[in-house]
Amino acid sequence: MIDIDVLDRNIERMAASLRNRGLKLRPHAKTHKTHEIASKQLAAGAVGLTVATIGEAEVFVEGGASDIFIAYPLWVDTHHADRLRQLATVATIAVGIDSVEGATAMGRSLGADAGSISVLIEVDSGHHRSGVLPGEVSLVARAAAVSGLNIAGVFTFPGHSYTPGMPLAAANNENEALSLAAAELASAGFDVKEISGGSTPTALLEGETVATELRPGVYIFGDAQQLELERCAWDEIALTVATTVVSRHEARSGNVRRIVVDAGSKILGSDRPGWATGYGRLADYPDARITALSEHHATIEWPENTDLPMLGQRLRVIPNHVCLAMNLVDEVTVVQDGSLVDRWSVAARGRNS
Amino acid sequence: MIDIDVLDRNIERMAASLRNRGLKLRPHAKTHKTHEIASKQLAAGAVGLTVATIGEAEVFVEGGASDIFIAYPLWVDTHHADRLRQLATVATIAVGIDSVEGATAMGRSLGADAGSISVLIEVDSGHHRSGVLPGEVSLVARAAAVSGLNIAGVFTFPGHSYTPGMPLAAANNENEALSLAAAELASAGFDVKEISGGSTPTALLEGETVATELRPGVYIFGDAQQLELERCAWDEIALTVATTVVSRHEARSGNVRRIVVDAGSKILGSDRPGWATGYGRLADYPDARITALSEHHATIEWPENTDLPMLGQRLRVIPNHVCLAMNLVDEVTVVQDGSLVDRWSVAARGRNS
Questions:
Q1: Who contacts B223 (Cβ-Cβ below 8 Å, separation ≥6)?
Q2: Cα–Cα dist A46/A48, whole Å
């Protein structure tokens, strides 16, 4: 259930922030997977979209997107190459790389069409997932150039910003890694057209950056993780999951009061970082805690000073990680002032490859 | 990717175990959500199916299932009642209840058709999720009877069996709770037709039980949780996720060797109990550890004495919780002796309500 007014405000706030700083916005569409929201982002000034997979790129290009960055170190075999080649005939396509082998495989598979695809070299800014370290950028760039690919620049994702107290340090790490990588690429004789950074927590800090563009995703909806990281406010939450109380347990000796609602990991997703207070939050009861989650049950411990909801009562749950929740449904309901105004198809749901 | 020979062996082993003990098998179809597997389970002697939602019941009844237990304390409004009424015209339908209010609401919404639906009263055997405690069974049963519902028996789910060292204790708790609940229901003058128990970990223990039927789900596939609970063996894993190495990092000072494969929480699900060794296991590398998971990346720490896989290499990942993995795809590939032999639609994927 998406509140369209909150969504529109979130889209405009991020767009304005980047516009004011002279940065390009290339929002990550894996968060929403939805044509209607991509259109709103592009209308608000986004230069293009970011996606994670070729499948997502296909969906958004089919929907009219003309400039897509697949921010992922794809391993491109001949089958993938056919799909990339097809995409590049109708849109500007960039892809991530983080290894000599990956660049070589991509170039070999694309053959004579390698030059139709731009690549950005991923650098590790502290998240220690994919990405090369400073000093390895030029090696990968040269392999890509030899393979006929078009070198566009560098990118990073400061995923370690998803920890309380870390967004500022992660933003500094991100800026430093991008600076070093861009300098290394320039020293190796390449034209650095794009320096692309992450993430919702760091983008909203509005610090100094060498980046030319940012790729936040979650900012359009917010979620319980962003709330607990203090990177969004309660009234900036645009997406909630409608649930019903199905089981209710008043305090017994030794037990806390609890209710069970009919939303579980198959609708909320089950991401739960160690620092999170639970498996999501209740939109109207900030002191309630979702202490356990199974596929169709969320167990909620209820604060002592508040009446326990009645059986059959409707409650709105804020998922911990909204990208997972969107990927679990084929359709979302869109509300305005509490009334249903539209339904949107989650067009790229499940497009994992 | 499902290995059909392993699947068939798993289906037959559970069926034989229950047959030999004179127990009815009513497998939980939320695990697979697939007509082809439901048919195999019924052909192997299952008396019917268990599901979690009305939507799942609708899919399986449409596929020909004639006897369904929705093992969930549904809150039944008039819309749900219409759907249950429709189902009951073509199949035998039972539903869980765990409160006077829930039973009353269901009876009121069904009106004159209340008698077409059987109910089983859920008891809490130690999982502390939904379910009543001993002593409350007769109260709920009387409310259901007054509402015109057909009382069929009692059920429980010993979810606390999903902890290392707990399956035996949980099975004992389950048996004790079912004994007490059945005795209480009989004392209140009701005919106890069914005493229905869980779960894959407890069902495979083959202990003494008062249950008349069991509702295991995961046993057909196994998963990394069941492996680590020692409730299935490596060669009993029927479902794996095919992945490709996309990023590779040999040891650096202070860092462990790691690879990244292109399977994340959007294909594996992100359930990770505190006792698990990681976010799933590698089918062919038992010493590798999936230490981090994002939407499209699994970060894998590699054991020291084994060569780090090459970029582009294919690896099979065993998800932690297979029910979540199935719910993320529209289709599965079926293999035999390593060759593709079929594709099955995950017909009830996303049917959360």
A1: B232, B237, B239, B318, B319, B320, B321, B322, B325
A2: 6
Question: B169 CB contacts (<8 Å, ≥6 apart)?
Answer: none
CB A197 within 8 A of CB A176: no
A214: part of which helix (H) or strand (E)?
Answer: strand A213-214
A234-338: what fold? Lyase, Ornithine Decarboxylase; Chain A, domain 1 (2.40.37)
The size of chain A, in residues, is 353
Would you call B101 and A312 a contact, using CB atoms and an 8 Å cutoff?
yes
Within chain B, which residue ranges are assigned CATH 2.40.37.20? Answer: 240-318
Tell me how far apart the alpha carbons of residues B181 and B211 are, in angstroms, rounded to a whole number: 11
**Which residue spans within B237-308 are E strands per DSSP?**
241-249, 258-261, 281-282, 289-293, 298-301
The two tokens of residue B219 are: 């046993």
Cβ–Cβ gap B311/A133 under 8 Å: no
* pLDDT > 90: percent of chain A: 91
**Burial class, A77, CB count within 10 angstroms (exposed 0-12 / middle 13-18 / buried 19+):** middle
Size of interface A-B (CB pairs under 8 A): 152
The dotted CATH code for B240-318 is: 2.40.37.20
Q: H or E element: which one contains B172? A: helix B167-187
pLDDT for A185: 98
Q: Please, are residues B14 and A279 in contact by the beta-carbon 8 Å criterion?
A: no
**Res. B256 pLDDT band, cuts 50 70 90:** confident
- Shortest Cα distance from B329 to chain A (angstroms)? 6
Domain with CATH 3.20.20.10 in chain A: 2-220
Chain A CB contacts of B101 below 8 Å: 248, 310-312
Cβ-based neighbours of B1, under 8 Å, separated by 6 or more: B239, B240, B241, B242, B316, B332, B333, B334, B335
Test mutation, B262, B299, B313, B332, chain A, max A CBs within 10 A: B262
Q: How far is A74 from chain B, CA to nearest CA, in Å?
A: 6
Which pLDDT tens digit goes with each residue over A136-169?
999 999 999 999 999 999 999 999 988 888 888 9
Give the Cβ contact number of residue A116 at 10 Å: 17
Q: List b or e across B161-188, with b for residues whose CB sees 16 or more CB atoms inside 10 angstroms.
A: bbeeebbeebbbbbbebbbbbbebbeee
In CATH, B2-220 is 3.10.100.10: no
Domain(s) labelled CATH 2.40.37.20 in chain A stretch across 234-338
